[in-house]
Amino acid sequence: MLRGAAIYLGAVCIGVTPIATVQAAGHDATPCDRTHFTIAIDPGHSREQPGAISARGVPERAFNEALSAQVVASLRRAGFAQTFATHPDDAVGIGLEDRTRVAAERGARLFLSIHHDSVQPQYLTRWSHRGVERLHTPRIRGHSLFVSGSGDEAAESLRFARLFGAELRQRCLVPTLHHAEPVAGESRALIDRALGIYRYDELAVLRTATMPAVLFEAGMIVHRGEEAQLQRPAHRLLLAGALTRAAIAFCEGLAPKHVAKTRCR
């Protein structure tokens, strides 16, 4: 979770015009040996540090673990046999630098940290769920992607973020722009407005990664409607499918060629 605030509404897909085509990054697509292309999936937080609390009282950790498991399974089905999670679901605690260290030790060529989002405290509203007072935001929703702009793998990190962001938009999923708002705890540099990609050099898992790395905020768990959507197995499958297609394109050396409008409402 990264804290922030602003308004960005979701979308309903009514038929999709391809949002992006891909072209080789300087050359024709090359065969990808998925069997030996190792991908590290990092479920954000742990039992010791469960992250944000959703509108209905569920810790972020539970969302991260459920989506990470779906992603790992999807990537393995696609042939990325060496895909692994950086820590087990029942891990009490794991340091941020330990996550990228594990990825490096196991030869990961791509690192993805999976999180779910919240907002700054001033944008939360009180409500009651099953007799317990909770906090939610009525209007802020959407996913976001974060990369580091420094280090040897900055360009490759951004390439994967754009491939993944394009796949998400093709599925009529709209990013949030609230992390760019000029408020305390935000003001992140917005690299790609259409795809919701931000630069955040200070994030530990991005700063310490020795391979291309992206942090994915899958959606806003303090928005009641989006929280419910993020809990649905079908939606997790959709997100995992988008990531898997992006991973295949990344492995093959492809990059987004252009972004077109989707027929969504």
Query: How many E strands?
Result: 11
Q: In percent terms, what proportion of residues is strand? A: 15-25%
Major beta sheet summary: 7 strands, mixed
Radius of gyration: 17 Å
SSE pattern, N- to C-terminal: EEHEHEEEEHEEHEHHE
The multimeric state of the shown protein is single chain
Describe the 3D structure:
- With 265 residues, the protein is of the alpha/beta class.
- The chain has a single domain (20-259), classed as Aminopeptidase (3-Layer(aba) Sandwich), CATH 3.40.630.
- It contains six helices and eleven strands.
- A seven-stranded mixed beta sheet has the order 3-2-4-10-7-9-8, with helices on both faces. Strands 1-11 form a two-stranded antiparallel ribbon. The chain has a two-stranded antiparallel ribbon with strand order 5-6.
- Strand 5 (125-129) and strand 6 (132-136) form a beta hairpin.
- The longest helix is centred in the last third of the chain and has 19 residues, at 233-251.
- The two termini are 27 Å apart.
Short description:
The chain has a single domain (20-259), classed as 3-Layer(aba) Sandwich (Aminopeptidase), CATH 3.40.630. Helix content is 28%, strand content 21%.
Secondary structure layout:
Layout (H helix, E strand, L loop, with lengths): L19 E5 L14 E5 L16 H18 L6 E2 L10 H10 L4 E8 L7 E5 L2 E5 L7 E4 L6 H17 L18 E4 L4 E3 L4 H4 L5 E8 L3 H7 L2 H19 L2 E6 L6
Parallel strand pairs: 2-3, 2-4, 4-10, 7-9
Antiparallel strand pairs: 1-11, 5-6, 7-10, 8-9
Helix pairs in contact: 1-6, 3-6
Key phrases:
265 residues; alpha/beta; 7-stranded mixed β-sheet; 21% strand; single chain; two-stranded antiparallel sheet; Aminopeptidase
